[in-house]
Amino acid sequence: MKERxxxxxxxxxxxxxxxxxxVEGKIDAIGPDLRAENTVAxxxxxxxxxxxxxxxxHTHLDKTMWGMRWYCNxxxxxxxxxxxxxxxxxxxxxxxxxxxxxxxARAFLQMGTTRLRSxxxxxxxxxxxxxxxxxxxxxxxxxxxxMQTVAFPQSGxxxxxxxxxxxxxxxxxxxxxxGALDPALIDGDPVAxxxxxxxxxxxxxxxxxxxLHEPAEIGAFTMNLLLDRVEALGMQGRxxxxxxxxxxxxxxxxxxPLLERLxxxxxxxxxxxPASVPVPPLAVCIEKGVTLFGGNDGIxxxxxxxxxxxxLERAAQIAMRYDLRRDDxxxxxxxxxxxxxxxGCGFADYGLHAGARADLVLVDAETVAHAVAARPVRxxxxxxxxxxxxxxxxxxxx
Length: 398
Fold this sequence. Notes:
α3 links the parallel β6 (113-121) and β7 (146-152). Helices cover 36% and strands 24% of the residues. By secondary structure, the protein is α/β, with parallel strands linked by helices. It is built from 13 helices and 16 strands. It is globular and about 65 Å long. α2 runs parallel beside α3 and α5 (190-204) packs parallel to α6 (216-233). It has two domains: 4-53 and 351-392, Urease, subunit C, domain 1; 54-345, Alpha-Beta Barrel (TIM Barrel), CATH 3.20.20.140. The strands form two sheets. The protein has an eight-stranded mixed sheet with strand order 3-2-1-4-13-14-15-16, with helices on one face. The protein has helices at 79-93, 97-110, 129-140, 163-173, 190-204, 216-233, 246-249, 252-264, 282-288, 311-321, 327-335, 339-345, 368-374, and strands at 4-11, 17-23, 26-31, 41-52, 54-59, 113-121, 146-152, 177-181, 208-212, 239-243, 268-271, 292-294, 360-363, 378-383, 386-390, 393-394. The mean pLDDT is 95. The two termini are 23 Å apart.
């Protein structure tokens, strides 16, 4: 017998009152007055707003201390200070990536996130230990949380001997995406670093998601080198550039040709919308046809005491960073943690339409903008056709 669920009386983002029929984890139909068979489990939405399950496009589940004791941060100001401090802390404290990632992943589900991309440190000291922990979490929640893991060299590709070999091992072990970091400013040789990255990705037929913090002209130089390789190797639609701070610092005459190349090669951008550094211009990216989506980065870790598994909160931060105030503009911020994030990460069968995976969130809000601004309790969260949270509380058997 097919598993069926009917969610009655909900409002689509356009205001239309509908029912949603779910069969075997997929949306079977959306429309008014759908007929329920005797075998249907039924939920009454009571006119709540229906949203698609949220997408976290960039986080670091392995690093988090969510739900643990407060970490007192006294680290130095440089990127390398934070990298070395974190490596030392994790080794000395015995930080457990399996337990940490499971706690935060469950919190994401509770708040309505059903698709998630997590970068995971691949380190010459720790080896694949952190990845193994996150892969356990991915396996534990595989029926409800669609999780991608990125094998991420937190110290760069070339700085520590053996990193490329470990990344090769990580992709063999089940990592979905190959990460990279600042080829010029961390590795000191952007050509060799990018060559190693694209060679490894090509051999494994894996997509790439690179952290690019490099500023202004340095970042633009690296980005052009990267785009040259995307074009030469036919990797259109398989590369994400995370952060891309340089695009927020360049004048339009230098920035716009880069955005046009990004659009032509279908290379997506990820922003966490930080307040302290330049960010890629959202409106111009949309105008040029570039996919720009959102994520938290680290949440409550040695780098950063902030962040939350609530993607409505991240959408609100994106809206504030880009000074979005109109309802239609705030809906663009929500797109960054929903449709655009699904496109950027390559999550298939996403959205509110028949045939999509049944990832649904109900909230008491009048519009999408209202939901982003008010961040109401999640009345119901459905992941892959299964009710996983109700009235802000996770179902305990997950």
